[in-house]
């Protein structure tokens, strides 16, 4: 029973405790809800105040931005209005100018119309006069044909022939005057430049020539040179490639060979053998080998010395050797090495006078005859061979052209090439430079006079100044004054095509009329 009671009491206590806990929890929840409501009201009030503050600031800012935009708009509008006013003013001015030009054009059109009417009227008058003039000319021609007994075509032909003769005469006279003036000026300047170059160059008057004659102390030496059954001379000729001529010439032998270097080696070896006296095949080979080395060294030294003396640096070593070989080469008795040096100096001086490249002219002049160093071994002219050599060793196009054109085998491409040809002619033509046999000299003079006599009207012809000039006297009745110039040119062209000669030949045609009277 008690247990039941305690159970009831416990249950009742539990229910009471739960009820009390609910009441307490309810009170606490109500208190928290009331605090939260107050806090929310406070937050809402603060948010409302801040919103009002932001709204006022935004309104102020909006008003300021509106005022700024309005001010800018007013300024821009005012500027645009001013631009429109200026544009309108310019348009107005242009319209005024256009109106003025239109007025001028209208006046000019009226003037043109008036002039056009006047021209039409004048054209009618001119046409009428032209028709009248044509009629009068036809009538006059008919009357002239009747008077002269010639048709119009025949008269025209005669007139054309007369005019042609007159024009030919006048053109020949004019050509003579022009050519005389041009020739006088050109010759004067050219003569001055050439004389300046010749005077400045202090070369030897007569160039050294190479010889191949070996003097002997006595004729007894000839037998020793020949040797037993000719073995010495055969060994010598086989080793040198030359021919030894032993004849009746007292105390001398002659060495003959187309190759000048071989001839020089043979000459030096023969002189050593003769001076030593020991002449036998073994000794001959030893002396020739030594002479070959001496000549090779001499060739190299000659080429280097010449390039240094002339002042042409940078030449290929093979070109220097070829230049040295020219020391033993002659042309018409003139040493080619000395001739090349003369041409280099003369061309350089003339180039300086003409304000051209003196160094390039000197280089081309030094190498212009380089082909003669090997032309006896290679087919072709020495100028063509020289061009090939210059190309092979990297010379410039102007130098190559100067080498090939110095005898006018090809066209000149540079003034330097012309100067080389002129310097070559000066060096070869100056007195004492070249040697010519009497027979060839006389034959050349006779041939020169023969060419002059081949022209009609020639009375007498004289080759003077060692063949440098030919003077021709013509018959006055057969040759007119204007014809003399034409004849001189024709004779000069024929001389160029039919004769070979160093330098140049001057052709002078003289026409003289004499009047003779007698007083009694």
What's the helix and strand layout?
Blueprint: H1 2-148, H2 152-200, E1 213-215, H3 220-226, H4 231-240, E2 243-245, E3 252-256, H5 260-276, H6 281-310, H7 317-325, E4 330-331, E5 334-335, H8 336-353, H9 358-367, H10 382-392, H11 397-405, H12 415-429, H13 438-453, E6 458-464, E7 469-474, H14 481-498, E8 506-511
Parallel strand pairs: 7-8
Antiparallel strand pairs: 1-3, 2-3, 4-5, 6-7
Helix pairs in contact: 2-8, 2-14, 4-6, 5-6, 6-7, 8-9, 8-12, 9-11, 9-12, 10-11, 11-12
The helicity comes to: over 70%
Count the DSSP helices: 14
Strand order of the largest sheet: 1-3-2
Named CATH topology of one domain: Hypothetical protein af1432
> What string, H for helix and E for strand, traces the elements in order?
HHEHHEEHHHEEHHHHHHEEHE
| Unreliable spans | 198-211
Name the overall outline.
Answer: flat
First-to-last CA distance:
221 Å
**Radius of gyration in whole Å, from Cα?**
58 Å
**How would you classify the helix and strand content by structural class?**
mainly alpha
CATH class of one domain: Mainly Alpha
Description:
Among the domains are: about 175-205 and about 330-435, Hypothetical protein af1432 (Orthogonal Bundle); about 205-295, Ribosomal Protein S8, Chain: A, domain 1; about 440-510, 2-Layer Sandwich (Alpha-Beta Plaits). About 70% of the residues lie in helices and about 5% in strands. It is built from 14 helices and eight strands. The protein is flat.
């Amino acid at each position: 029973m008690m247990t039941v009671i305690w159970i009831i009491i416990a249950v009742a206590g539990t229910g009471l405790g739960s009820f009390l806990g609910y009441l307490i929890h309810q009170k606490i929840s109500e208190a928290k809800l009331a605090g939260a409501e107050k806090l929310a009201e406070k937050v809402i009030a603060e948010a409302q105040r801040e919103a009002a503050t932001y709204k006022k600031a935004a309104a102020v800012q909006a008003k300021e931005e509106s005022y700024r935009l309005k001010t800018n708009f007013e300024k821009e509008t005012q500027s645009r209005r001013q631009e429109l006013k200026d544009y309108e003013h310019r348009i107005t001015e242009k319209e005024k100018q256009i109106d003025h030009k239109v007025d001028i054009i209208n006046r000019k059109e009226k003037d043109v119309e008036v002039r056009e009417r006047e021209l039409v009227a004048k054209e009618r008058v001119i046409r009428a006069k032209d028709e009248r003039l044509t009629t009068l000319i036809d009538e006059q021609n008919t009357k002239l044909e009747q008077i002269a007994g010639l048709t119009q075509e025949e008269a025209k032909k005669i007139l054309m022939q007369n005019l042609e003769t007159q024009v030919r005469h006048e053109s020949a006279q004019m050509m003579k005057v022009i050519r005389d003036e041009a020739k006088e000026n050109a010759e004067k300047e050219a003569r001055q430049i050439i004389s300046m170059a010749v005077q400045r160059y202090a070369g030897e008057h007569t160039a050294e020539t190479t010889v191949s004659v070996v003097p002997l102390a006595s004729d007894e030496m000839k037998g020793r040179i020949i040797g037993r059954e000719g073995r010495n001379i055969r060994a010598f000729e086989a080793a040198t490639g030359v021919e030894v001529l032993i004849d009746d010439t007292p105390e001398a032998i002659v060495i003959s060979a187309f190759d000048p270097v071989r001839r020089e080696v043979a000459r030096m070896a023969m002189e050593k053998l003769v001076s030593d006296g020991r002449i036998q095949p073994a000794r001959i080979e030893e002396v020739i080998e030594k002479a070959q080395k001496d000549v090779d060294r001499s060739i190299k030294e000659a080429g280097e010395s010449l390039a240094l003396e002339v002042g042409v640096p940078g030449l290929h070593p093979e070109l220097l050797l070829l230049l040295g070989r020219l020391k033993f080469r002659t042309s018409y008795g003139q040493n080619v090495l000395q001739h090349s040096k003369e041409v280099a100096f003369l061309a350089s001086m003339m180039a300086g006078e003409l304000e051209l490249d003196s160094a390039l002219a000197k280089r081309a002049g030094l190498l212009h005859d380089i082909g003669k160093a090997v032309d006896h071994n290679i087919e072709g002219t020495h100028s063509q061979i020289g061009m090939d050599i210059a190309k092979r060793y990297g010379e410039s196009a102007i130098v190559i052209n100067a080498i090939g054109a110095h005898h006018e085998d090809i066209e000149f491409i540079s003034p330097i090439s012309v100067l080389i040809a002129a310097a070559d002619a000066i060096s070869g033509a100056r007195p004492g430079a070249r040697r010519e046999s009497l027979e060839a000299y006389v034959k050349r003079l006779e041939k020169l006079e023969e060419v002059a006599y081949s022209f009609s009207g020639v009375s007498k012809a004289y080759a003077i100044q060692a063949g440098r000039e030919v003077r021709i006297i013509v018959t006055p009745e057969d040759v007119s004054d204007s014809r003399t110039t034409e004849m001189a040119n024709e004779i000069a062209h024929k001389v160029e095509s039919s004769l070979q000669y160093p330098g140049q030949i001057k052709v002078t045609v003289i026409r003289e009329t004499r009047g003779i009277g007698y007083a009694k």
